[in-house]
Hints:
alpha+beta; 11 strands
Amino acid sequence: MLPQYRTVSGYGEAAFEIEKSRFIAYADRAETPEAAQRFIAAIRKKHWDATHNCAAYMCGERDETQKADDDGEPSGTAGKPILEVIKKMGLKDSVVVVTRYFGGIKLGAGGLIRAYGKSASVGLQAAGIIERRLFTPIAMAIDYGLYGKFEQELRLRGYRIMETQFGAAVTVIALEEAGQEERLEKMAADWSSGCAELMRRDAVYVDAPVNAQ
């Protein structure tokens, strides 16, 4: 699993007009080629009467799957510019479909490239860009008398408390950056004079919004 990466938050759409042609951009997260293809098929079904439904997607931890489709526009003027925007924004697991209703004025190759690139950009921004960072939940079982101290120490250091369970002991589950687990475990041992029972849980991604560039 990657320690961190950027992708879209979810579904988004945006529309605008260029030289009387209407462009509607749709974006979503797609973690597999099959998911991307389903999204593209759904938009094409929705806009079955459009002049073009051009698309691109990139999936995989190492961007293993990349595909662009001009859907009848001159080769390289639609799907590729969409894909290049996904790459330029540094996004993974993302799919974009740009629907065009021709308005009667030809844009030329350069105009099409700019129009589809702009469409992809506004569609992705409408979907929202997030950064996913990998964290390891660390469960710390402690006596009730240590609960206040642990909570204060964690918050002072900016740790996110995922959950607190109350039973025979208090179990505080906090998130530590993946690969840095020993840092929190050492502090927990110090705070409890070695009495805390520690357990690492399966790593999880935590999402945070970022400003698209």
